Amino acid sequence: MSPASLERPLTLALSKGRIFDETMPLLAAAGIQVPENPETSRKLILPTSSPNLQLIIVRATDVPTYVQYGAADFGIAGKDVLVEHAAEHPGGLYQPIDLNIARCRLCVAVPVGFDYEAAVRQGSRLRIATKYVRAAREHFARKGVYVDIIKLYGSMELAPLVGLADAIVDLVSTGSTLKANKLVAVEDIAEISSRLIVNQASLKTRASALQPLIDAFARASSQDE
Ligand code: ATP
Ligand code: MG
């Protein structure tokens, strides 16, 4: 390993929004503050109060990629994102620790009044709009339901309202977005929370810097329970 890589601060990859917000208390528990807010700063590399740690701000779905290639030593990503990433890129990520943040459920939701149970019983072929293609495909395969999956990148709630799909597979926390669009969750697929993922090489070569942070995160997140 080159001396330069030993001196570079540890890099933690995060997405802005709820994961950033809910990670701040975990960093605080490790004695680390972040002076700048990614919502207002345009910087994509944020220093922290520790000279040994910097943050990079990336799209939620890109966090595993930065960590897998070692551009970030570790990162925080939802289980939803990790499942989809693992399908496309087997191996390469060190076993995640559940941080118990950004908790929600992956659900099947349908328009209010649509009889999902009857459609399933009758063996109807269902059109499902989702960002979570792999999780959705596995769920319906387990149930023995024939589905056509339509991949979307956001605003899944719209799809059943305009006739693109019969149902959606999406993340739900309070259900208020579903309700605002006259949809209702009819089935839970998985409990989702965010995980700490670590680059395998970093875990070996930078253990003395990384391990205390990993331990502090694990302690702080289990105290939340
Ligand atoms: P964007 O909303 O900017 O298009 P995104 O949906 O990938 O991007 P977020 O909405 O910040 O990003 O979601 C990041 C992660 O937070 C998700 O991968 C998921 O694990 C979790 N999450 C998403 N929606 C909710 C929710 N309603 N409640 C709790 N956690 C959620
Ligand atoms: Mg979102």
UniProtKB/TrEMBL annotation:
Family: Belongs to the ATP phosphoribosyltransferase family. Short subfamily.
EC assignment: 2.4.2.17
A GO term from the CC aspect: cytoplasm
Domain remarks: Lacks the C-terminal regulatory region which is replaced by HisZ.
Keyword presence, Flavoprotein: no
All copies of domain ATP phosphoribosyltransferase catalytic, residue ranges: 59-216
Pathway involvement of the protein, from the record: Amino-acid biosynthesis; L-histidine biosynthesis; L-histidine from 5-phospho-alpha-D-ribose 1-diphosphate: step 1/9
PROSITE patterns in alphabetical order: ATP_P_PHORIBOSYLTR (PS01316)
Name assigned to this protein: ATP phosphoribosyltransferase
UniProt GO MF annotations: ATP binding; ATP phosphoribosyltransferase activity
Ranges in coiled-coil conformation: none
Subunit structure: Heteromultimer composed of HisG and HisZ subunits.
GO biological process, one term: L-histidine biosynthetic process
Source species, domain of life: Bacteria
Cellular location(s): Cytoplasm
Physiological role: Catalyzes the condensation of ATP and 5-phosphoribose 1-diphosphate to form N'-(5'-phosphoribosyl)-ATP (PR-ATP). Has a crucial role in the pathway because the rate of histidine biosynthesis seems to be controlled primarily by regulation of HisG enzymatic activity.
InterPro entries, alphabetized: ATP_PRibTrfase_cat, ATP_PRibTrfase_CS, ATP_PRibTrfase_HisG, ATP_PRibTrfase_HisG_short
UniProt KW keywords: Amino-acid biosynthesis, ATP-binding, Cytoplasm, Glycosyltransferase, Histidine biosynthesis, Nucleotide-binding, Transferase
Catalytic activity: 1-(5-phospho-beta-D-ribosyl)-ATP + diphosphate = 5-phospho-alpha-D-ribose 1-diphosphate + ATP
